[in-house]
Design a protein that fits this description.
Layout lengths: L1 H33 L11 H4 L14 H29 L3 H7 L4 E8 L6 H4 L15 H4 L29 H13 L2 E8 L16 H10 L3 E6 L7 H15 L7 E3 L5 E7 L7 H8 L15 E5 L5 H8 L3 E3 L16 H10 L3 E3 L1 E2 L23 H12 L5 E3 L34 H20 L2
Parallel strand pairs: 1-2, 1-10, 2-3, 3-5, 5-6, 6-7, 7-8, 9-10
Antiparallel strand pairs: 4-5
Helix pairs in contact: 3-8, 7-8, 9-10, 10-11, 13-14
Membrane topology: Single-pass type II membrane protein
Keywords: Golgi apparatus, Hydrolase, Membrane, Signal-anchor, Transmembrane, Transmembrane helix
Organism: Sinosuthora webbiana
Length: 462
């Protein structure tokens, strides 16, 4: 009898213990997706994004000859598209006043990262970026466990979500206008346009500088402004940056949609975000960004506000020595880097305040890039039906920043987009979506926090 009682007791104890362990595991997984504040910077994910480990972008050296041959055709196609866009805009200018009444007021302190690197056969003769290759893991033993090859649009694209507009071309004027309307409806005010110098592009794309005039025109129609996100092109240094900033201001600076920021001293200056700025040593940047620098842009017609990317904590001192005017954090993966970890924003803001720098935290709705890095699921940050995004906004408002940046409008490869997405299922894949919400839920959340920011900012300034 005693043996039976003890056996039943042991079985009950084991079952209870097992249920308790399952409960704890469920709680831990839920917490990981929502607030991964303490994730280490040494995460292997960095090998795919941080250029000192694996270069993110290159000049298309191997393609340069073919690009040169195609450049004339590309310029002609873009010029034609610009003409089409201008004619389309002229025909649709009459409803602009009505649009102004229907759409949210633009908040020029909300900056949103925007990419024009997508292409399809109708506008580009082929798919660009939607057919993104599957990137192999750097460890061959791990890489062998994952698929290789490229995506095959339009059913199979390099993204975990699927756009409402389909596998679109960034050259399509109707797409550009739809994007402007979405960004305006979200109450963002400044588009931070990913930019490479003429003839250059990321390793999976083609040059897009000729598209800038069309983007500016449509941005102006929706009362939006455009600034530039200067990507890490080959041989980027103080001299090339001077020439490229001069090029941008000379070519686009007179456009009414070209963004200028009003400083505390009352000056109106262009603003440039500089991605992967830490790759270049502070001494080189100081040649360009300090008054005494050999290539100084200060106190010239091309002076501007230059915003550096902060990844590691030590970068804040390098940014200050370099002569930058501020820093941003870019990554939408809370916990991936020191800069993208929400709990570090207060100390970074304090450092910036004490050194007369701008601190621009970057918020994002989530992160997932397993469509192009299938081995990287440990860095996924679930959207949690919008809670992750709102948590990021809440953390940003706590430090009272002058500007908040949003990662991103349409970086589909990394799943940070707030652009409208729709449910889609193919024979190969089931795409994620925004259910139970509508396709515009992240635009609505952005608009909500834009209004909240405006109201709180009024209190800060009192």
């Amino acid at each position: 009898l005693n043996y039976d009682i003890m056996a039943r007791f042991r079985r009950r104890t084991c079952i209870i213990l097992l249920l308790f362990i399952l409960f704890i595991c469920s709680i831990m997984m839920a917490l990981k997706t929502l607030r991964p504040d303490r994730a280490g910077f040494g995460d292997p994910f960095g090998l795919g994004l941080l250029p000192e480990l694996q270069q993110r972008t290159v000049l298309l050296d191997s393609k340069q000859n073919s690009l040169n041959r195609a450049q004339g055709d590309t310029v002609t196609r873009v010029s034609n598209l610009h003409s089409i866009a201008v004619n389309t805009m002229k025909a649709s200018m009459s409803p602009v006043k009505k649009l102004e009444e229907e759409l949210s007021f633009p908040n020029y302190n909300f900056h949103i990262f925007y990419y024009t690197w997508y292409g399809n056969p109708q506008f580009d003769g082929k798919y660009i970026h939607w057919n993104h290759p599957l990137l192999p893991h750097w460890d061959p033993k791990i890489a062998n466990n994952y698929p290789k090859g490229r995506h095959n649009p339009p059913e199979d694209i390099g993204a975990n979500f699927y756009p409402e507009l389909g596998s679109y071309s960034s050259k399509d004027p109707t797409v550009i206008e739809a994007h402007m309307k979405q960004m305006r409806s979200a109450s963002t005010g400044v588009i931070v346009l990913s930019w490479y110098p003429p003839g250059m592009a990321d390793e999976n794309g083609e040059p897009t500088d000729n598209l800038v005039p069309v983007v500016l025109d449509y941005a102006h129609k929706y009362n939006l402004k455009v600034t530039f996100h200067i990507e890490p092109y080959k041989d980027r240094d103080d001299r090339s940056m001077y020439h490229n900033v001069k090029y941008i201001i000379d070519r686009y600076g007179s456009h009414p949609a070209f963004y200028r920021h009003k400083t505390s001293t009352g000056r109106l200056l262009p603003m440039f975000y500089v991605y992967d700025s830490y790759v270049t040593i502070p001494e080189i940047w100081a040649n360009l960004l300090t008054v005494s620098g050999s290539q100084s842009i200060r106190n010239t017609p091309y002076d501007a506000l230059f915003i550096a990317l902060l990844v590691e904590e030590r970068h804040k001192h390098d940014i200050h020595r370099s002569g930058f005017d501020g820093m941003y954090t870019y990554f939408a993966t809370n916990g991936f880097s020191y800069g993208s970890s929400h709990h570090n924003w207060a100390s970074l803001k304090a450092f910036c305040d004490s050194n007369n720098l701008m601190f621009i935290p970057s918020v994002g709705p989530g992160y997932i890039d397993t469509s192009i890095r299938p081995w990287n699921n440990h860095n996924t940050r679930n959207r949690v039906n919008g809670k992750y995004y709102e948590t990021a906004f809440s953390a940003a408002l706590l430090v009272r920043p002058e500007i908040i940046s949003i990662t991103s409008f349409n970086e589909w490869h990394e799943g940070t987009q707030i652009e409208k997405a729709v449910p889609k299922r193919t024979g190969q894949v089931v795409y994620l979506d925004y259910k139970p919400h509508k396709p515009n839920v992240y635009l609505e959340l952005t608009q909500k926090w834009s209004e909240k920011y405006r109201k709180e900012q009024e209190q800060w300034l009192m």
